[in-house]
Amino acid sequence: QVQLVESGGGLVQAGGSLRLSCAASGRTFSSYAMGWFRQAPGKEREFVARISWSGASTYYADSVKGRFTISRDNAKNTVYLQMNSLKPEDTAVYYCIRTVGGSTPFGSWGQGTQVTVSS
Hints:
This protein is an all-beta fold. It has no helices and eleven strands.
C-alpha cells in the first residue's frame, strides 16, 4: 500500500504562491493516477486536481483552474501542486491521494498540509 506524506503548506497573503509536495512510498506509485483534495473548516472535502500516471493528462476543479498546476516526478515518487494567485477561500488542509475512475479518491488519507491565505 502506498503511503503519502504532504508538505509545503503555510501562511501566505492573498495573491501569493505556494508549492505543495506529496511524497509517496512504494514501487507502484508511477502506475497510479494521483489527485489533490482539500477540506476547509466546517466543509466537506473537495476535489482540487488530478494527474494521470504518466503526467500527460491533468484535470482541475473550476475553482482553481488557471491558478493551480498539478505535476509529478515519478523518478522521485512525488506529486506537486503549484498554487498561484491564492485567495482566502483557498484556505484548507490539502491532501494527496491515489484516484480511480476519474476523481474518486482511493486508499488512506495522509495527514495533509495546512494552507492559510490571509486577506
